[in-house]
Write a structure and sequence with these properties.
By secondary structure, the protein is an all-alpha fold. The protein has two helices and no strands. The radius of gyration is 21 Å and the shape is elongated.
Length: 72
């Protein structure tokens, strides 16, 4: 490989890595927004279904993360 090919290859790989990282960050943001909406919404009729236990666990984790982030 010549030097320009090496430089082009490195640039391409960095660009692909940046695009992948951006996509992962967008997906993570969407998941966090969905969890926030779910935790903020009251669901008194849900009962003790397995999905409700998972939701409660996710909400506890979210509250713990928010509390940890608020510590000065």
């Amino acid at each position: 490989m010549t030097a320009p090919q090496v430089i082009a290859t490195i640039f391409f790989l960095v660009s692909v890595g940046s695009a992948t990282t951006l996509a992962l960050m967008a997906a993570a943001s969407a998941v966090l927004d969905a969890v926030a909406k779910t935790c903020d919404r009251a669901r008194p009729d849900a009962g003790r279904h397995r999905s409700r236990r998972v939701t409660e666990a996710a909400c506890r984790l979210r509250r713990a993360a928010l509390a940890r982030a608020a510590i000065p």
